[in-house]
Amino acid sequence: AQMINEMCHLIADGTPMVSGVALSGGVFQNRLLLRKTVSLLESSGFQVFTHRQVPCNDGGISLGQAVIANFAV
C-alpha cells in the first residue's frame, strides 16, 4: 500500500491537475491491500475511486467492452 501511495505521489507531482486515483485490477480484490491503500491515499489528499457494482478483475472487462461497443454502433 505504501509503494502504491508513493507512486501516486510521484505521478501527481509531475502532473499538476492530478487529484484522483482509480484503483482497479485483480490485486485490489485483496481487501486488506485495498483498505490500506485507500486510507493512505485519502489521508494524502487524493480522491480515490474503487469498484462498487462491477468486479475489479477481468470480470469487469466484458462490461466495459459492451459499453464501448454500444457507443460505437
TrEMBL record:
Coiled coil: none
GO biological process, one term: protein maturation
Limits of the Carbamoyltransferase Kae1-like domain: 1-65
InterPro entries membership: Carbamoyltrans_HypF-like (IPR051060), HypF_C_2 (IPR055128)
GO molecular function: carboxyl- or carbamoyltransferase activity; zinc ion binding
Protein name, UniProt field: Carbamoyltransferase Kae1-like domain-containing protein
